[in-house]
Amino acid sequence: MFIEVVKSKLHKVTVTEANLQYVGSITIDEALLEAANMIENEKVQIVNVNNGERFETYIIKGERNSGIICLNGPAARKCAVGDIIIIISYAMMDFEEAKKHKPVLVFPETATNKLI
Description:
single chain; about 120 residues; Barwin-like endoglucanases; 8 strands; globular
């Protein structure tokens, strides 16, 4: 049996940009991606602390150490610049493997999105 578990999480980052005219996705600072063990094109769930919105999209790699968290395309309607969000990725794994799995949890400085 396989189950879906949390693989990694960027906890409480601040939306720095919203680009409605882009094709879609979320742009995330490359340093944050590496810290959270996430990769470009990976599917993620976005949870907006400010308004309760929850949705899925995919990652675009942003400039390293820029602090960028940009919602693109229709996702830009779900979050406003300045909103606090949580970005979660999941993985499918065997039930026994999942019992031993430890997710990567990253808690950047919320005001700047920089690693502490």
